[in-house]
């Protein structure tokens, strides 16, 4: 099968050997850059289409091909889209090779008027689809998700990068080991003192992105942590933050507990309380701080063992009551023997006195 790469094609799948797409008449490209065979589309967003492909030069290893076809108007917007696309390739090149929970970059090139990015394929599903199929996460699953993803945020922040679009759709769970992988660095940004977007530009996803990102175009590590907290809230309660955001603005974050289906432990509740404040100054400022709180409260409690106590050995066949009775009888017998001995001694002393008196009389 050959996949048509026209982003507007309504039916892009064609049989092998065909030169033109049967749906849109576009000339078909069997191999991108002479090595990547596109199999079928995976999805489509505001910046273009994503395809599943095979690398013919690498034993048909599966990979993901992203095609930049931004749905934007104006020169500035188009230039910005190209800048962000190239920036994603640079971030994957820098980060993916160092961390297994970030996809690696394979190629970045232009062909037939389109920009392409080829990256590692993650065999699994994103957390939004898993939630739709399996329902809300249990508390221990939310806790484990945080413990698994926070080291990734710690890593990218230490490399001076903020993701700016953390949400369940951008967290893949590997099929083989359940390890979460952070994807879609398309709007990530190099961190200086403050990451600023052009005034009036909203970067991120509504409901998941914090107020400083949506209103002021600013982003910090604390902004990514808010997005992670909002994602956990969504997966834990089943309530989409976007709905709450449209109804209540950011005030919902102060009352997130009222949407719980059950109870939440005090320690996880306090962590979410500090991930979700509207004002950045009241949030966690580093992934390391969140990890420290979670790990301290998740550590198993070592039981305090009492020192061993000496236990009296009871002869086989004897009960405690029998021993007490025996001790009582033995005590009485000992007392009787003592009394008999005392009487005998008194008699002997008396007879000695009489005999002594008789001898004196003689």
UniProtKB/TrEMBL annotation:
Pfam families, A to Z: Pkinase
Top-level EC class as recorded in UniProt: transferase
Domain named Protein kinase: residues: 36-305
Enzyme Commission number(s) of this protein: 2.7.11.1
Listed transmembrane segments: 323-345
Residues noted as binding ATP in the record, renumbered to the chain: 66
Keyword line: ATP-binding, Kinase, Membrane, Nucleotide-binding, Serine/threonine-protein kinase, Transferase, Transmembrane, Transmembrane helix
Coiled coil: none
Catalysed reaction, written as an equation: L-seryl-[protein] + ATP = O-phospho-L-seryl-[protein] + ADP + H(+); L-threonyl-[protein] + ATP = O-phospho-L-threonyl-[protein] + ADP + H(+)
Leader sequence segment: none
PROSITE patterns found in the cross-reference section: PROTEIN_KINASE_ATP (PS00107), PROTEIN_KINASE_DOM (PS50011)
Molecular function terms, GO-annotated: ATP binding; protein serine/threonine kinase activity
InterPro entries listed in its UniProt record: Kinase-like_dom_sf, Prot_kinase_dom, Protein_kinase_ATP_BS
Name of this protein: non-specific serine/threonine protein kinase
Organism, as annotated: Microseira wollei NIES-4236
